[in-house]
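Researcher: Please translate sequence to structure tokens.
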Amino acid sequence: MGGDDTAGDDDVFTAPEAADAETALVAARTLADDDLLGSIVADRGVLALDPASDLFERLVVSILRQQVSVASAAATRDRLFDAVEVTPQGVLAADPERLHEAGLSRQKTRYVRAAAEAFRDEVYAKAALADCSNETIRDRLTEITGVGPWTANMQLLFTFDRPDVFPVGDLGVRRGVERLTDTEPSRGEMRETARRWAPFRSYASLYLWALTD
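Model: Translation complete:
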């Protein structure tokens, strides 16, 4: 299952573009008035989610990032994308040993292939899920072997561009909250702290990642 991890730099520190630009600007202006996050917003400026267009590809990247460093995941990602076509059909057509040789563990090879099996059905396409609630998307994605809450939340932020998601299972978010509050909060306490950032908790997460970058 998806575990604690930290979003990669390519997820977080982007200039606002397209549909996300207005929401990112409103979020930054709102969070700038927050006693905890205000100085970080002033330092970093406007941060945007920059959603991916391909849900399957982005899900695979999140699986690679489960419980490993950003650098290690990035190296594996590069090798995998060079080795196979990262589509459901391309992954399933590749010999599992080829995925393993690209740097995937046996377990992550199984997870990526399980995702490819699920995505052969268009019911998992981004367009098919775009109008669903956060809870429905989480439920659907976590039905896939190897996709836990953290991995599903990364899709809500970085594929579906949902503005109010707070991934308490993310190590970078946890470290950011710890630095802001000078505590070691439980997940329940993290959620309680994050209430102040609604309805822009996704953007608050970007600033927490920026704080620990």
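Researcher: Any highlights?
Model: The mean pLDDT is 90.
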